[in-house]
Each structure stands twice: as C-alpha cells, then as structure tokens.
C-alpha cells in the first residue's frame, strides 16, 4: 500500500519545458520553493514530488524500487528536459534513467551527492546521526541561527518537512544497503548530461569532486560558501547551472 502521490508545482501546466525536482532524506517538496519559483519564471512547469516516507506519505514498502515506481506517473505524464536531485534525491534520480525516453535527452543536476562509500565501521554512526536529526526536530529559529543564508521560509519548511516524515519510512530507507553512488554516476549514458554541484569543502566534504576528475563527461562545480543545503543557500546558482546544462543539450541537438 502506498498513499496517494502528492507534489508541489510551480508555473503553468501548459508550458513546453518541464523540470522534476527530487528532495533528500527527511526533506519535502516545499524545500525547493526558491528553485521552483525561479525556474517557473524562466518558462518551466516544475514538479517536486513528495517521496514516499515524506510529506505524510506512507507505504508498506520503502525500498528504492518502490520509491522509483511511485514516481512513474510523473514520468509518464510528460518528458523532462531537466531533473534535479539533492542528497537522497540523487540516488532516486540515478535510478530513473531506465524509465526515461531515449528520444528525449535530459540534463541532470545532482546537488552535493555522497561520492565516497561510507566504511562499514562508520555506517552505524552515520545512520544514528540521520535518525537523531529526525527525532530531535529543530524549530525554525534554530535552523535560521545555524544557517544564516537561509530565508525564514527555508527554516520553516525545513522544520515542517522533518515533522511530516514517517519514522518507519526514514528508518527503513536508512537501514538499506547504501548504493555505490559514484559507480552509478559514472555509468550514466553520455546523452544525459550530468552536472554535480558540491558544497564548499571548507564547510562540508559530503561530495568530494576530486573523485570525479577522471571522468570528463561529468561536469563538477564547487559552490564557494555553500554547505549541504545549496538549494536554500544559493538557489540562484542551481538555476544558473541547470539552465546552462539544458542549453548544452539544445546546442548538441542543433
């Protein structure tokens, strides 16, 4: 059993350009609001689904296959020239490629993915940190104090997103075997252009761009001054790099 799909959208459904935004763990569709509004202003119809286990959405199965299958109606409804994923949303985005039409190239923007495998002896600690962040919900004023680049709305949406998660869903997702994310990124066909936005390494080393240097088909961009939540800190950079990636597709198709 999976609850009825839900999503936040921006822009006109009659737009000819479409973008799909995939949030991370313990997050929600609303946390994309600044990116979504900006892309809509550029002529996109933007869809940000709430993944199962988030946004009050429950399921009897929180496996990655179920998360991806739950998104099939969105993929069948329209073709996307742009897909953006953040953190766990990167894992989901990389799992969508087999469902995308080969006749419609897509630009993919991956925001601060975990590019190195977590050692087995550190995995339990990593999972515990994630669960504690879910169980100890921070009020907006704490988020705002810890993240001075966030707007008040960012802080409110972050608290709301955490409160709307399913504890069973978050625990189930966290207990699954972590995917070999770097291998999955490298294996993406060239026709889908991959851009990775990484946090400032002085702030966060979740995504280590040096691991991507041997792969010239992957464009990596470090965002100075950014932490893990780039969509809350520098949404304009995400939009700029996303449009640049889509523009590259348009050039190649001419």
Structure explained in plain terms:
With 254 residues, the protein is α/β, with parallel strands linked by helices. Helix content is 40%, strand content 15%. It contains 11 helices and 7 strands. The chain has helices at 33-41, 64-70, 72-77, 88-94, 120-135, 140-146, 152-163, 167-174, 181-186, 230-233, 235-253, and strands spanning 7-10, 17-22, 44-49, 82-86, 107-111, 193-199, 218-223. Strands 1-3-2-4-5-6-7 form a 7-stranded mixed beta sheet. Helix 4 links the parallel strand 4 and strand 5 (107-111). The protein is globular and about 45 Å long. The termini are far apart. The model has no long low-confidence stretch (mean pLDDT 90).
Backbone structural class: alpha/beta
Number of helices: 11
Mean pLDDT: 90
Order of helices and strands: EEHEHHEHEHHHHHEEHH
Biggest sheet character: 7 strands, mixed
Spatial shape: globular
Distance between the termini: 45 Å
Low-confidence segments: none
Secondary-structure blueprint of this entry?
Blueprint: E1 7-10, E2 17-22, H1 33-41, E3 44-49, H2 64-70, H3 72-77, E4 82-86, H4 88-94, E5 107-111, H5 120-135, H6 140-146, H7 152-163, H8 167-174, H9 181-186, E6 193-199, E7 218-223, H10 230-233, H11 235-253
Parallel strand pairs: 2-3, 2-4, 4-5, 5-6, 6-7
Antiparallel strand pairs: 1-3
Helix pairs in contact: 1-11, 5-8, 6-7
